[in-house]
Amino acid sequence: MLVEALATLATAGGSAVVQAAGTDAWAGFRQAVARWFGRGDAEQERAELERLDRTVTALRTADPAQAERARISQEAYWQARMEAVLENLDEGERGGAADQLRALLAQHVPEVRVTAGPGGVATGGGMDIRAEEGSIAAGVIHGGASIGPPPTADPPKGQADRQAPARSPARHMAPCVDREVFPPAITVSRSAGPAGSSFTPRHVPR
User: How far is the C-alpha of 70 from the C-alpha of 60, rounded, in Å?
Assistant: First the structure.
């Protein structure tokens, strides 16, 4: 099994093949990769050139919905082939082959193009995300974001009671009762007199 450094190198090589495919750097890179695989064997080198051409065709003809899957598949294919070459070499040859592959990548693909799927962030180097006072900074935010004062913890129940502002005493209003107003009472007194005597009303307040 390859050590981590060589496995990482093979991963970078697989990514470089896919990223360089079809670009201006492809012609020189294609030849260099084929020579690295052939290691002096002309027939092996021609076979690698055909494989590299098939990779370009696969990437160009992939359906847009399957483009990402095709890219990942081709990266894995070339990564596995590079790992196999390094793993099958003896210890003395392996170091030299690894150095050659590093130099090849540095020469033909000096800047690695990095892509990201939907909702992702791609960077070819370091990424520094900062936020100024009163703002939000993030690589990716899923959902909403808001800015406001930090929530404060509720005080203990006893303390909350002590800190609660005093309430003004409620004013008790006497219920309003409808009062029925009666007309002044009238009493009638009969004064003595002849048959034609009269009645004199007298108002008596209630």
Answer: 10
∠ CA 82-85-89 to the nearest 5 degrees?
Answer: 145
With 0-12 / 13-18 / 19 or more C-beta atoms within 10 angstroms meaning exposed / middle / buried, residue 130 is: exposed
The CA–CA distances, whole Å, from 35 to 10, 11, 22, 46, 100 equal 16, 19, 19, 9, 11
How is 55-89 classified by DSSP, letter by letter? HHHHHHHS-GGGHHHHHHHHHHHHHHHHHHHHHHS
SS3 assignment, position 149: coil
* Listed residue (84, 65, 87, 88) closest to 76, CA to CA: 84
What Å distances lie between residue 144 and 100, 140, 204, CA to CA?
Answer: 49, 11, 82
The H or E element spanning position 43 is helix 42-61
Question: What pTM does this model have?
Answer: 0.54
Burial of 13 from C-beta contacts in 10 A (0-12 / 13-18 / 19+): buried
Structure confidence by residue, pLDDT tens digits, 71-102 = 999 999 999 999 999 999 998 899 999 999 99
Q: Are strands 199-204 and 185-190 parallel, antiparallel or unpaired?
A: antiparallel
